Amino acid sequence: MVTVAAVVEETADARSLVFEVPPECRDRFAYRPGQFLTLRIPSDRTGSVARCYSLASSPHTGEAPKVTVKRTAGGYGSNWVCDHVAVGDTIEVLPPSGLFTPPDLDEDLLLFAAGSGITPVMSILKSALGGGRAAVTLVYANRDENSVIFAEELRELTAAHADRLTVIHQLESVQGLPTPASLAALARPYRPRRAFLCGPTPFMDAVRAGLDKAGMPADHVHAEVFTSLSGDPFEEIVVPEGDDAADAATAVVELDGETHELVWPRSSTLVDVMLANGLDAPYSCREGECGSCACTVTDGEVEMAHQGMLDADDIAAGYVLGCQARPVSDAVSIEF
């Protein structure tokens, strides 16, 4: 549980929640720029739902963890946060997760964001300026000037880091919607950089096409996609015991430098078995969409309900998702 220390009204339809993390949980809630938190949102129908919100704060600037939430039409979780959360409230939160994070804060960056897609991009931007030596260019698309989240903060950062930070605003009310051609023209001078992009699907598609036109290598392009979880990663975990576990496999799991041997019932996922045995398994969604539980099979065989965010190269390299993996062989060795 974390406590809401402050609520910041960013725009007419977006607000930030600043969290106070208990001292005993601070190591567990350490995060990398661009990661997200999974919040437990109360629901009259199902008891609760889980929603993932990106951290807009930076772990390199000394500020408290902050997520920014934009109201969306029909968005149950975002509307509940915008309507009901107040200072002093406590919220159940899973530890930070996500792979949308730069490998090197000294490497020059080209950032693209649209609307609330600025949240993880802002974390990366502030981290590069505060914790590295990178030059940063941000292209930020919005409907109009009043829709620009973090407008004042971006002005202050640009003034403080004029030699390293360039912010290019793209306003639909002035320039129209960005196109692959216009985005390619913006990107060409920055082809050697690493690009990070986040926003609605049409914007992301246009940016990808623009970067391809500009000749940026595909392995320099990193995208974050917002998804709503259909399940509840906070729900109680039930692992078969007794006769139901008679045909279980054996799992040898290497996690954080320690090795654990576990009984792995064939109907249970690896993450569920690890959590049931008190291990701090990395996970956020338990649906295969976030990649937090990606691990490597070093011996034995598993099957996955679906491959989620893993691509063919990941699978060929031996990666699996712990929240989707169930044992096929009698013994399996896994490394996180």
Please describe the structure with a list of short key phrases separated by commas or semicolons.
5-stranded mixed sheet; 3 domains; 5-stranded parallel sheet; 19 strands; single chain; Ubiquitin-like (UB roll); alpha/beta; Rossmann fold; 8 helices; Elongation Factor Tu (Ef-tu), domain 3
3D structure, described in words:
The protein is built from eight helices and 19 strands. Helix 5 (180-187) crosses helix 6 (201-214). The protein has 336 residues and is of the alpha/beta class. The protein has helices at 76-84, 118-131, 151-160, 172-175, 180-187, 201-214, 270-276, 312-316; strands at residues 2-11, 14-20, 36-43, 47-54, 66-70, 90-91, 93-97, 109-114, 136-142, 165-171, 194-198, 221-224, 249-255, 258-264, 294-299, 302-304, 319-321, 325-327, 331-335. Strand 9 (136-142), helix 3 (151-160) and strand 10 (165-171) form a beta-alpha-beta unit. It has three domains: 2-97, Translation factors (Elongation Factor Tu (Ef-tu), domain 3, Beta Barrel), CATH 2.40.30.10; 109-224, Nucleotide-binding domain of ferredoxin-NADP reductase (FNR) module (Rossmann fold, 3-Layer(aba) Sandwich), CATH 3.40.50.80; 242-335, Ubiquitin-like (UB roll) (Roll). It is globular.
